[in-house]
Amino acid sequence: MNSARWLAINTDTAMAKTLTAPLPVAALRAPDGLWFGKDLSTPEPIPEGAIERAVALMRSGRLHRYGEQGTGYPEPSLLEQDYAAYVGSKYCVAVSSCGAAMFIALKALGVKPGDKVLTSTFTLAPVPGAIAHVGAEAVLVETSSDYMTDMADLERKAATSGAKVFLLSHMRGHIADLQAVRAICDKHGIPIIEDCAHTMGAKWDGKYTGTWGKVGCYSAQTYKHINSGEGGLLVTDDDDLAAQAILMSGCYMMYDQHILKPAADVFERWKYVTPNFSMRMSNLAAALLRPQIGELAERARRWNHIYSKLQHELTKAADVSVPARDAREEFVASSIQFTLDLKPAQIARFLKECSMRGLYIKWFGTPSPVAFTSNYGHWHYLTGKPDVPKSMGVLNQLLDLRTPLSLTDNDCVLIGRIVAAAAVIAAAN
Q: Rounded to whole angstroms, what are the CA distances from 204 to 175, 210, 220, 268, 323?
């Protein structure tokens, strides 16, 4: 049996005795012989229909987002139509990234330099980055032990901070209680922008994330639910916000090439006072994405099966817990997070033990940023001192594992065994 076959099977003792090929060298460093070795960063492949459409576009040479000669609706406009229909929004604007969507949303809502914006403590760098991009000040809201927005802290800061907007991050697919969030924000006159980079296709209480606030922002980066390498989508039901978003994204006054657009008089209000930031999605990226929308439901089913299996296996380990999900939350789990109830030095040992077994896990309490993983303590551009004493305790014990659709049930069992073994060793040190 070759090593590739060995990597794919469960490592029960009985199975291990049947191996005829040597274990990978790295596995020999772990006395228990456990070895995973799969690349968890492997993205989902692009569907053949999307590849064919992309090739046709490349042969035409029409890769720009607009066509001056009225050559029909460009791919981003068709994508906007498809995605708005999918989530039930009046408008959708296709842009270059989710970060661009958040920046445009903040600008369209009138956020100016020096204004305050409430945002989630548990998030990734593009979220505070969008706030910094408009020159505003991020006011961090506490994260609870179940990785959600702390409602008491949101209420306090909504009442006292003078914030103009709440940029809410559904980080790693954990959806806040959106009825509660909206009640608090409505009470204080604070519009909501939803960062749905990790919740495309997910719902709260039967309603898609991104449609609860004024604006929803989604990602089509390689490791998200649909993949164009990079890309973003902005949805809204507001005519003025939609017109501004179209103009800011870089329409060069060719907004008639948008299928979904406000009336001409709305553009008249905004077209001479709204800058062009050239952030619109390209034809090629949109062509790659359109066929993938129809695959979201099946991808969600498969991701959630993996999540359920991993949750079952991980919680067998000592000191490991996975927060329960609210019954109102219809999540799409392209990753899984768990809390390891150990000290930071022990967690560092845990990560080392996992890597010795070919399993690479991210840690939100890492002392310095690593790849896509960072926390608010690393964002030194934030103004003011963050008032979030609970959050670092949560993040210091929060582990993160990407779950590509290539994972099998046996893979999940093996991951659980490695985590359990590493946790025992770490706890003893």
A: 7, 10, 21, 36, 17
Q: Considering Cα of 109, then 113, then 118, then 121, what sign does the dihedral take?
A: positive
pLDDT of residue 62: 85
The CATH label, of 3.30.1540.10, 3.90.1150.10, 3.30.1330.60, 1.50.10.10, for the domain at 23-45+296-427 is 3.90.1150.10
Quickly count: other Cβ atoms within 10 Å of residue 99's Cβ. Answer: 24
**Structural contact between residues 193 and 165, judged by C-beta atoms closer than 8 angstroms:** yes
22 burial via Cβ count (<10 Å: 0-12, 13-18, 19+): exposed
Burial class of residue 264 (count of CB atoms within 10 Å of its CB; 0-12, 13-18, 19+): exposed
Place of tokens 């960062």: 195
**What is the DSSP-derived secondary structure letter of residue 177?**
-
> What residues does each domain of the chain span?
23-45+296-427, 48-293
Pick from 286, 245, 283: nearest CA to 266: 245
pTM: 0.91
Q: With contact defined as beta carbons under 8 Å apart, do 168 and 149 qualify?
A: yes
Sorting pLDDT into bands at 50, 70 and 90, what band is 29? low
Topology classification of domain 48-293: Aspartate Aminotransferase; domain 2 (3.40.640)
Which residue carries 């008089």 as its tokens? 265
pLDDT tens-digit map of 43-72: 888 999 999 999 999 998 988 888 766 667
Kindly report the average pLDDT of the chain as a whole number: 91
Cβ burial of 196 (10 Å; 0-12, 13-18, 19+) is: buried
